[in-house]
Amino acid sequence: MDRIIYTAAGGAARVLEQQAVISNNMANVNTAGFREQLAIYRSVPVVGAAPTLPTRVSTVTSTPSSSLEQGVMVETGHALDAAITGEGWFSVQTPQGEAYSRAGEFAVNQQGLLVNQQGYPVLSADGVPVEIPDRGAVTFSGDGQISALGAGDNPNDIQLIGQLKLVNPQPGAMLRGDDGLFRMGNGQPVPADPEVRMIAGFVEKSNVNPAEAMVGMIANARRFEMQMKVIQDASANAERANSILSTN
């Protein structure tokens, strides 16, 4: 294959890969607790059947990390909504083990368990799912303690039913999953951190900047067009060269 076409085609493929990451970020602008995924270009050596060419490199698109900046806090007034202030994560139980999220839009499922929007049980400080009393009015405290008042109970009979497991692992030790949740690279659960604080009646929105994401999508579209123009010009030049060298 012509080297110019090969180089341009490789560049176009990398642009499409990065565009997919930006598009996913853009699609989750309104997703509570979503962390912006970062994409970069990385050089790799050219290795094939022929001997390695040390002076030539190719590129790949990689997503080494996510932006952990705090998103905008929005007051909802819902009793089961909560948002972490500063650093920290909520803990949820998934089929792949314990995972961590900043999304605090909670609900109660048919089994009476506190769950997130994906249906995964929210964990207590004891590492077990949080059970909510039937038709109980729930309140959260700043350190994650959960109080409930049963339907028809005296307001003075409010009872403490548990405490949310709030953790604060090292960001570099966590891996992002395809479901948007984060898990420890070693697969081990993180102990609760008593220093993490939260606020009830609020939800933390996505930390994706819509304007920056839109600019990135436009810039990538222009890069892709330039790569396609290079391929078209190379093809046209090859056709002209063939017509000059051809004999009737």
Task: Characterise the protein shown here.
With 248 residues, this protein is an alpha+beta fold. The chain has two domains: 3-67 and 208-245; 73-204, no CATH class. It is built from two helices and 16 strands. It has helices spanning 3-27, 210-245; strands at residues 40-45, 57-62, 73-75, 82-85, 89-94, 97-101, 107-108, 114-115, 137-140, 145-149, 159-163, 166-167, 174-176, 182-184, 197-200, 202-204. Strands 6-5-12 form a three-stranded antiparallel beta sheet, with no helix packed on it. Strands 9-10-11 form a three-stranded antiparallel beta sheet, with no helix packed on it. A two-stranded antiparallel sheet has the order 1-2. Strand 5 and strand 6 (97-101) form a beta hairpin. Helix 1 packs antiparallel against helix 2 (210-245). The longest helix is centred in the C-terminal third of the chain and has 36 residues, at 210-245.
Strand and helix map with partners:
Elements: H1 3-27, E1 40-45, E2 57-62, E3 73-75, E4 82-85, E5 89-94, E6 97-101, E7 107-108, E8 114-115, E9 137-140, E10 145-149, E11 159-163, E12 166-167, E13 174-176, E14 182-184, E15 197-200, E16 202-204, H2 210-245
Give the key terms.
alpha+beta, three-stranded antiparallel sheet, 2 helices, bacterial flagellum, cell projection, Flg_bb/hook_C_dom, Flagellar basal-body rod protein FlgF, flagellum
What's the quick description here?
The chain is an alpha+beta fold and 248 residues long.
The count of β-strands is: 16
β-strand amount: 25-35%
Taken together, the total number of domains comes to 2
For the largest beta sheet, what order do the strands appear in spatially?
A: 6-5-12
Largest sheet features: 3 strands, antiparallel
Taking all residues together, what is the mean pLDDT? Answer: 87
Q: Give, in order, the helices and strands.
A: HEEEEEEEEEEEEEEEEH
Alpha-carbon distance between the two ends:
26 Å
Q: Helical proportion?
A: 10-25%
| CA gyration radius, whole angstroms | 26 Å
Q: Which outline best applies?
A: elongated
Structural class: alpha+beta
Low-confidence stretches: none
Number of helices: 2
